[in-house]
Structure formats: structure tokens, C-alpha cells
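Hi Q.,

Before the meeting this afternoon, I wanted you to have the erythose-4-phosphate prediction in hand. No need to reply - just skim if you have a minute. The sequence and ligand are here:
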Amino acid sequence: MKLFIDSANLDHIKEMNDLGILSGVTTNPTLMAKEGKDVNQTLIQIAEMVDGPISGEVISVDAKGMIEEGKKIAKLHPNMIVKIPMTEAGMQATKALTELGIKTNVTLIFSLPQALLACTAGATFISPFVGRLDDIGTDGIELIESIRDMIDVYGFDSEIISASIRHNEHIKASINAGAHIATVPYEVLKKAFKHPLTDTGLENFLKDYQKVYG
Ligand code: E4P
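Predicted structure with the ligand bound:
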């Protein structure tokens, strides 16, 4: 499974990218607003920093607007992916952009029928929101499993980006469920490196070594 970072914060993205663990980046309007910087400039800086798919989300809600925005986003950098909401207009835009050779990431997916529609429309990536489903007492990981089965059985080309990741367990469960990618917030990525036995194990290695070799 590949790891993307779910962020528009350039410092956080650089820190994680310098560790060699990132294969891409996802942003959304909320993450962009959190930074409050120029959206296009931020996307270009991210794409120049991380060598992989970079998702920039449209804010239009009509198909025509999404298509026009999508063409502009695609022109920002060769690695740009146009992020489109799972709506009827979004499917029309996904089909049109795909026919133009522009890669898409259909987001805000919460059900298997939505995933089927997005795959059928030609989405390059589809983003089921695990955390938000868990928030309402629905099993988000079960959806990832079902979507992966659907893709494998029917031979769709779309890749699953397990999104709305809240903690380490979501990363682990996304792996086991067959997600192609997990897009993980900075704070969750930082915690993924840590385990108490690693800390005590390293401490004891160094103590034992120092006793003999000084
Ligand atoms: C992915 O790109 C999504 O926009 C993101 O993971 C949503 O996460 P949230 O549910 O924490 O807002």
C-alpha cells in the first residue's frame, strides 16, 4: 500500500517527504483554507516537492464549472490529479476529463454504489472516507474491502485511496482491506513511526553497547 499525506501544509509535507515515505499528496478545500495561502501556488509547490499524484479539488458544483476548473488544475503540473465530488455533475465531469486524458480522484465516497458509479465514470482514484463513516457508527473499513472486491471482480482500473484516516488502526485495516493507497494526516503519520517497545529496545541496545565499548 502506498502512503500519501493528507495536507496542504508545506512544512509538514516537506518533513514527511524528506523521510522518503510519501508517494503522493491529497488536499481538499478545508485543508487549503486552513493554510489560507494561494491555492494554485500551493499546489505547484507541493507538486514540485513530492514526486507523485497531487490532488487538487474543484469547488464548482456544476459539471461545466468542474470541467473548466479541472482543465486549469491539470495545467498546473504534470502530476496534478483533479479531485471531484461524488455527485451526478461530478460523474459527468469525471467522464469528460477522463476523455481529455486528465486524471481524476472522486472524493466523498461513502457507499459501494457510489464507488461503482465513480469507477464506471473512469475515475483514476476513488476516495472512500473511512473516519467519517466510523464517526456515524458505520464500518468504513468494510466499505474498503467491498470496493476492492468489486474492482478485482469486474476489472476496474480505479485505485482506492483510503481517506479520512484517524489513527494507526485505520492504516493497518486499510492495508488488510486491500486499499491501494492510504492518505494520512501529518499527526497520524508522526504517530505511525512510534511504538513503546521500539523506544525501550533501542535504549537497551545502546545501554548494553556502552557498558562494553564505552
Ligand atoms: C481526502 O482527501 C479527504 O479529503 C480527507 O481525508 C478527509 O478527511 P476528514 O474526514 O478528516 O476531513
